[in-house]
Amino acid sequence: MNRDFILASSSPRRFELLRQIGLSFQSIVPSVDETTERTDPIEIVSELSVRKAAAVAKNNPLSVVIAADTVVTADGHVLGKPHGEGEAFEMLRFLSGRSHFVFTGVTVICDGRIETAICRTEVFFKNLTDEQILAYVRSGECFDKAGAYGIQSKGAVLVDHIDGDYSNVVGLPLSLLYEMLREFDINII
């Protein structure tokens, strides 16, 4: 496998996931507008992952570019990254005691071809007290994460269980990525 891989992201969680599967890559942070008029979570993550991948692939046409975008949804509400403690607190209070979905759109661009796929995982939160939520918010862990929590760190204690792909909740569904790369005749194992 003599391909150059680029992750179109600055996410340390996505870095760690790719390292976990032994993929050597460089990171290029795409300069894109991440706002969208779309309200459907599948459309949001699809559009934004394509936008990120295309921005990086434009200047790196010989590389395999991987991009992802993740949102959390519950009861028809799309939750992105919180903009401060108050918004993080309200997101976590909203998620407390209920299930929600994590959607990640993954886009791979290779040899001029673009493939996008979606992964969905259902996450079930424990019933949380305001004190528990506030303590987690004050940990600072919630600010760069969709839905205001990170399942791979302290946020794991907020979660009762999941139905689906754990790495999707972290931010990059590895099994899905593996299958997508195979569509390009790239086998990473």
Give the arrangement of secondary structure elements.
Layout: E1 5-7, H1 12-20, E2 26-27, H2 41-57, E3 64-74, E4 77-79, H3 85-95, E5 99-110, E6 113-125, H4 130-138, E7 159-163, H5 166-170, H6 174-183
Parallel strand pairs: 1-2, 1-3
Antiparallel strand pairs: 3-4, 3-5, 5-6, 6-7
Helix pairs in contact: 3-4
Would you summarize the structure shown here?
The chain is α/β, with parallel strands linked by helices and 189 residues long. The protein has one domain (5-183): Maf protein, CATH 3.90.950.10.
Order of helices and strands: EHEHEEHEEHEHH
Number of helices: 6
CATH topology, what is it called? Maf protein
Largest sheet features: 7 strands, mixed
Q: Could you name the ranges where pLDDT drops below 50 across 5 or more consecutive residues? A: none
CA radius of gyration is: 17 Å
Protein traits:
189 residues; alpha/beta; Maf protein; 7-stranded mixed sheet; 7 strands; 32% helix
Can you put this structure into words, describing what you see?
The protein is an alpha/beta fold and 189 residues long. The protein has a single domain, classed as Maf protein (Alpha-Beta Complex), CATH 3.90.950. It is built from six helices and seven strands; from the N terminus they run βαβαββαββαβαα. β1, α1 and β2 form a beta-alpha-beta unit. The longest helix has 17 residues. The radius of gyration is 17 Å and the shape is elongated. The model has no long low-confidence stretch (mean pLDDT 95).
